[in-house]
Specification:
664 residues, alpha/beta, 23 strands, disordered N terminus
Amino acid sequence: GPKCETEGALTHQYELADLTTWITDCKPKRMFCIRCCLLELQCSRARLAIAAATLTLPQFAHTPIQMAPAMASVAVSVRSSLDIANTRFKGECVGLLGRSTELGPAVPNDAAVTAVLIGEPNITYELILSRFRAIGTPIEKYLTLRDLLRLAPKVSCVCDVALQQPFIDGSSSVLQISIGHFGRCNPPVYTVWLDSGQVYYELLLKHTEEILPFIYTPTVGEACQNYHKLPLKTRGLYLTLHDKGNIAAKLQSWPVQDIRVAVITDGERILGLGDLGRNGMGISEGKITLYTAAAGVNPLQSLPICLDVGTNNESFLQDPDYKGIKAKRITGAEYDAFIKEVMDALKAWQPHILVQFEDFGNNNAFRLLEGYRHDMCAFNDDIQGTACITLAGLLSAARATGKPLKEHRVLFLGAGEAGTGIGELIAKYLHLKHGMTVEEGRQHCFFIDSKGLVCKSRTNLQHHKEPFAHDVEFCPDLKTAIEQLKPTALVGVSTIAKAFNEEILKALYKLNERPIIFPLSNPTSKSECTYQEAFKWTEGKVLFASGSPFDPITDNEGIVHYPAQANNAYIFPAVGYAAVLARSKEITDEMFVLSAEVLSQMTDMQELEQGRLFPPFQNIRAISKVLTARVAEHMVETGLGTPPEGVKDWENFVAANMWTASKL
């Protein structure tokens, strides 16, 4: 046969633009020896390096076969060898799969075999899950999941070689390698392909409640703080100040063009951790994953975006490893012009795209929301999503107390975008459902900031605080405000750990038989109190919801009490996907009021007594199906959305359009 062209020259580098040409040239012109094949494809456009397997088949010796094209789908850091004569298969890679394995028995020359590189010959889904559970720290679990998340092409035969999907992320591991001999090819063709993305999503969708803390809060906070030092490849798109004037071109060059959902941050206020600059990409990646996990949005139609406009984080500015722009954040007209270019480019690129603003600083969050929410389908999850899930929790808690929400008073510790956003949605609910004016609804909400109670006698208040500056006596601290205002509910959005101490919670309990306590600050290290503390200091009477998860408590009588987690993932994926499916022109406050009301009605009184203010998150797909359908239907009924052709039953339509791992 032809001479082996790879012998003595094992490494070949190709740019993505040349990959198609290379594959075409390989078939049938170039012949590669299966024993010598070691290829490295460097795809700069996708930011992905692929190191192909080294295959040793002694019985083939240097018989050339058309092997090379199949190597395009083998992942980073994998070095494997197949020795049929000795019945051994060895593999080594990183993360969960960072070990060698030997598999048998002997493989017939005409058989197809599948080997999973986690050290066991008989692989089951349960084994994969158990290996994941055995990983030590949360950040290691986060990195392992990132390793598994890889959307890559699959090759069944060199005759069918094609980039079925672009390489759109850069994780560095492979879970499954399949090696098969397909008899219809002559000469024989052996292919190597991977399927780790499917396993990732199967883990996520089947064990959402267990996996979620290692994809989003609380682990994502630590990941964002150290994002520039962690061994991971970015899945999303960075738009930086250096791209000014070229934003549209960058969007048009993204490997996948059918983008329906974008989560965008500038990294200025990541959770309660402050300005993390370029590292904010981690929050966009985490939120975009929840669209798939919770609501069934196709991950290939979802785009995480981070805007790098500088950072005011001094430690990052001095850190040689920090990869972002090492300059102070731009502000004012320059900042607004950059944002406008980004938003205009997104709308021109995908006119019906849903844009979720995420973790922008207080000075910009409200402005951007009001500036763009009526011009395109955009919302701010920190303001509107947090408000919606909190309203849903308050409605459930109000049912447990036997009093409607109109008879409650809510005191907030913290008066930033999240807190006042909740207050505004409560006022909107009381207006729509109880006939109050919005101003009368606001009178049920009070705010404590760093200077004390927000009230009419205060001067120089920020714009978003002014509607809640009521004509009441000033209180210098939280305890005084509880004693004077006599609230029924206490909501923490301050990011001040332990702010709800024993004195504070006992003061609230003294006024209320069933005190409502919502420490919403993230991550866990910033929570105003724990469930254990709230339970103890209210003698188990607390109606509790938190931003981060806490463990349940078993009382002296053996009764289990569950802490509710006010997780925005109940809300934003469903509302966002409804907007996508109905092609809504915008997302209104009424849609969030509707979502809160529907969600609060999904728990019965027995569940409320157990502390379950929200339905179990393990049922999130079923929950999202109902929410998405109700909101989409509302969008169409109000004239903001367009009904898809032939849709009569929205729940069936939503269910049929929910993406699953089998669709990879």
